[in-house]
């Protein structure tokens, strides 16, 4: 497992399990349990996913010491605002059955609330109820607005990122500010696994297409949280540390960029509540 040192020296595992759309309780507990068994130590949930309770249950069942785990959750849009975020945090904490969260994120830059939301996250950080303050789906313009209004800038920004949407400009900006980037939909939700180049590289390196894409993220110094409920895939998505992709192949993968966004565009100030 590779650990990434964040701006405040906290170590975050570079590979975690994403649990979006895990709606079946038993399946979720099993998937998280399986991931912890094969060596994952980071789990990415959100109040929006409605499975924090199951994530907590799997954590307790695993018997792994709390300090060895890295748990991320997020405040959803209908919970945003200063006081609302503090209350949402208490709910998440109690559903997870934990007494602190490793990384707490504003899920979406809701145009009239994301600054107050992040101020509450900052307070939770000051009170040591979270180890790392962060945001998700924040573009440069949102981060610049935060910069003028907060004392401690986010240490992680979780954004959609995969070979079809590589986020190079945003990543460069985050690097300048020492904000680590986590890729959500690191596999493009599975859609990019049929790409001809990725299939060709999978043959060349004797790996699966998913492993090629996930290893590419690691070569780009990005944190990843691939989602799967299938034990063999959970295992496959974690077997990334015994090979690397050559520079000339990384250059070919760079050419797959075509602004191929799957999710909503956070630069459009929509009301997502
Ligand atoms: P993903 O790119 O991780 O793709 C998941 C899908 O890929 C799975 O449903 C499965 O069908 C397929 N898959 C997984 N492993 C595979 C393998 N080895 N071989 C073949 N197919 C495989 O997409 P995602 O779940 O949307 O994103 C990952 C995580 O990111 C989520 O679970 C969630 O935790 C987080 N997320 C965050 C946001 C946000 O707004 N912050 C948005 C979406 C997702």
Folded structure, characterized:
The chain has 273 residues and is of the alpha/beta class. Helix content is 39%, strand content 15%. An 8-stranded parallel sheet has the order 3-4-5-6-7-8-9-10. Strand 1 (3-5) and strand 2 (11-13) form a beta hairpin. The mean pLDDT is 97. The chain binds nicotinamide-adenine-dinucleotide.
What's the gist of this structure?
This protein has about 270 residues and is of the alpha/beta class. About 40% of the residues lie in helices and about 15% in strands.
Write the layout of secondary structure elements.
Blueprint: E1 3-5, E2 11-13, E3 17-18, H1 25-38, E4 42-44, H2 52-62, E5 70-75, H3 82-96, E6 101-106, H4 114-126, E7 130-136, H5 140-149, E8 156-160, H6 168-176, E9 180-184, H7 196-205, H8 209-219, E10 223-224, H9 231-236, H10 247-254
Parallel strand pairs: 3-4, 4-5, 5-6, 6-7, 7-8, 8-9, 9-10
Antiparallel strand pairs: 1-2
Residues 18-20, 44, 107, 136-137, 158, 184-190, 193, 210, 225-228, 233, 236-237 line the site of nicotinamide-adenine-dinucleotide.
């Amino acid at each position: 497992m590779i650990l990434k040192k964040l701006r405040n020296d906290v170590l975050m595992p570079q590979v975690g399990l994403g649990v979006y759309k895990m709606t079946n309780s038993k399946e979720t507990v099993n998937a998280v349990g399986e991931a912890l068994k094969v060596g994952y130590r980071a789990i990415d949930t959100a109040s929006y996913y409605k499975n924090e309770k199951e994530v907590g249950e799997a954590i307790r069942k695993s018997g792994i010491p709390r300090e060895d785990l890295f748990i991320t959750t997020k405040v959803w849009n209908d919970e945003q605002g200063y006081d609302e975020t503090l209350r949402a945090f208490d709910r998440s904490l109690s559903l997870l059955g934990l007494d602190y969260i490793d990384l707490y994120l504003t899920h979406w830059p809701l145009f009239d609330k994301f600054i107050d939301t992040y101020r509450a996250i900052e307070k939770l950080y000051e009170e040591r109820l979270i180890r790392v303050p962060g945001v998700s789906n924040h573009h440069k313009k949102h981060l610049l607005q935060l910069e003028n209004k907060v004392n401690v800038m986010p240490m992680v920004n979780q954004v959609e990122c995969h070979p079809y949407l590589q986020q190079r400009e945003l990543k460069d900006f985050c690097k300048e500010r020492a904000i680590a980037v986590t890729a959500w939909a690191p596999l493009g939700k599975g859609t990019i696994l049929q790409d001809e180049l990725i299939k060709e590289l999978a043959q060349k390196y004797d790996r699966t297409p998913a492993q090629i894409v996930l290893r590419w993220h690691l070569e780009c110094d990005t944190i990843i949280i691939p989602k799967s409920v299938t034990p063999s895939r959970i295992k496959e998505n974690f077997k990334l540390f015994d090979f690397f992709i050559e520079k000339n192949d990384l250059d070919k993968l760079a050419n797959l960029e075509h602004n191929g966004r799957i999710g909503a565009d956070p630069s459009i100030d929509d009301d997502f509540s």
